[in-house]
């Protein structure tokens, strides 16, 4: 049964022009929230407005704009962040991801809104075995460090009485994603090369499962004051993942492998040449993490406390993602 507009809660979503934020907005709309989106670039707001979402123009770094966007909201889903673009200096990550989070938390506290904050499993760095929320912080770059800073701010505001939950997602993929497009494309056209042994773990999370979990954290009473890892049903080795993607794009799995050291050296060189000019390097060390950093995580806490239950198995999610790439002409 549809709720009358006067009874529909209003939720602000930051980062709704991005991949995960788009799905969070959709999930909220399905649950009859009025969706308001904070959009930095007005030129990108058109598709959101067409879906009936309210548009608030502003930058996360602008405290006044964030406060205006938050007014009248019962919930804030803070998904927006600056993500791993090597052309930016470390201070920009701090300004957007930590400073912007402080603005969101402050506005929510003043307006009485409940917050769900997006962090990353990257705060744990390169993990051994299967990590849970108790694994130590071990950030390896400016992005991950800024997310550690943002989590500390969340804890501070929770102590001040803000109703807030934090989640750490892993390997988000699905239709509309372009982060994993290169992997699918190179496997499809037989140009993919494995660097290293490929025996590290990789953990993917289908975006629709994640969005449902994020909304759940905004509604379940047991989520308040807690931090959760949200992942897909299972992790796999990198070799197994590549084989599964090959199956999704209907080609034989790639064979052979190359040594890691030359790749890492080339990444350092690209960063050194490009960064002074503000150019995004074609290869950088963070991209090499795909071949070097192990990622396997447990979502048991989220299952136990709030009933988080991802439904989309890896092969199905990869197939649905591949179908979307084919439909968009991104791979042929």
UniProtKB/TrEMBL annotation:
Q: Which residues form the NAD-dependent epimerase/dehydratase domain?
A: 11-224
What pathway is this protein a component of? Bacterial outer membrane biogenesis; LPS O-antigen biosynthesis
Q: Per its UniProt entry, which superkingdom is the organism in?
A: Bacteria
Q: Name one Pfam family in it.
A: Epimerase
Sequence similarity: Belongs to the NAD(P)-dependent epimerase/dehydratase family.
Q: Which PANTHER family match?
A: DTDP-D-GLUCOSE 4,6-DEHYDRATASE-RELATED
Q: Output this protein's name.
A: NAD-dependent epimerase/dehydratase family protein
At the highest ranks, the source species' classification is: Bacteria, Pseudomonadati, Pseudomonadota, Alphaproteobacteria, Geminicoccales
């Amino acid at each position: 049964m549809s709720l009358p507009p006067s009874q529909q809660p209003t939720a602000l979503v930051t980062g709704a022009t991005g991949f995960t934020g788009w799905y969070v907005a959709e999930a909220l709309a399905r649950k009859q929230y009025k969706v308001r989106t904070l959009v930095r670039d007005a030129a990108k707001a058109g598709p959101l407005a067409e879906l009936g979402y309210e548009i608030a123009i502003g930058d996360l770094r602008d405290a006044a704009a964030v406060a205006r966007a938050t007014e009248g909201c019962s919930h804030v889903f803070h998904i927006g962040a600056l993500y791993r673009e090597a052309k930016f200096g470390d201070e920009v990550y701090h300004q957007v991801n930590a400073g912007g989070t402080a603005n969101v938390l402050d506005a929510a506290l003043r307006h009485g809104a409940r917050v769900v904050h997006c962090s990353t499993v990257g705060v744990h760095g390169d993990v051994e075995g299967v990590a849970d929320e108790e694994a130590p912080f071990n950030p390896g770059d400016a992005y991950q460090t800024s997310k550690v800073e943002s989590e500390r701010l969340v804890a501070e505001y929770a102590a001040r009485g803000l109703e807030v939950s934090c989640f750490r997602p892993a390997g988000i993929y699905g239709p509309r994603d372009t982060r994993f497009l290169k992997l699918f494309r190179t496997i499809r056209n037989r140009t993919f090369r494995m660097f290293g042994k490929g025996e590290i773990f990789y953990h993917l999370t289908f975006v629709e499962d994640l969005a449902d979990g994020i909304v759940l954290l905004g509604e379940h009473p047991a989520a308040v004051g807690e931090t959760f890892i949200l992942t897909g049903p299972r992790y796999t080795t990198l070799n197994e993942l590549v084989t599964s993607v090959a199956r999704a794009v209907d080609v034989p799995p790639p064979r052979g492998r190359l040594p890691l050291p030359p790749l890492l050296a080339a990444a350092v060189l690209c960063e050194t040449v490009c960064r002074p000019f503000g150019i995004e390097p074609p290869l950088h060390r963070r991209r090499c993490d795909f071949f070097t950093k192990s990622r396997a995580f447990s979502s048991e806490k989220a299952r136990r406390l709030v009933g988080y239950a991802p439904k989309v198995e890896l092969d199905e999610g990869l197939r649905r993602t591949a179908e979307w790439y084919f439909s968009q002409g991104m791979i042929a």
